[in-house]
Amino acid sequence: MNETIICAVGNVATRPVYRELAGGPSARFRLAVTPRYLDREKNVWTDGHTNFFTVWAGRQLAVNAAASLNLGDPVVVQGRLKVRTDAREGQNRLSAEIDAMAIGHDLARGTSAFRRVSRPETAASPPRPEPDWRTPEEETGEAETGEAEPQQPSLSAVVT
């Protein structure tokens, strides 16, 4: 509920790695974000400190990112920021990850050609039976009256 959603603009710093996992497709890459500012004393543009984020994508976003992104591409990534600390080799390390919700090329720095992904046609699945939403009280009420008519819940019964 209280997640930190960010939008990061930078360059793909590592080739995207794609994996088919038990939970579905997954892809990851490193994003380099370097701010530029005008140094007014020298009147030149200067690069600031570069921040690196590991970007994680899942499901169809992972498939599309792996097929679309290349090393050095300018991109815009929107997602959930996760900052972690862990101890490795006796040192505390800080890592920043973005669980991506959207990834796209930065059109301020170039052009891109969008291709909609066509989904494979699947055979029609047999219709599933409607679930039985009756409560135990409704089932006992049917047994008393001997009728099997479904009862509609009143609005006061639905809103708690």
Structural account:
- It comes from Streptomyces glaucus.
- Residues 138-147 have a biased composition (Acidic residues).
- Pfam families: SSB (PF00436).
- Residues 111-160 are annotated as: Disordered.
- With 160 residues, this protein is an alpha+beta fold.
- Helix content is 15%, strand content 43%.
- The chain is built from 3 helices and 8 strands; from the N terminus they run ββββββαββαα.
- It has helices at residues 59-68, 136-145, 155-158; strands spanning 5-12, 17-21, 24-33, 36-39, 44-47, 51-58, 74-88, 91-105.
- Strand 7 and strand 8 (91-105) form a beta hairpin.
- The radius of gyration is 26 Å and the shape is elongated.
Based on the model shown, name its key terms.
single chain, 160 residues, alpha+beta, five-stranded mixed β-barrel, 3 helices, elongated
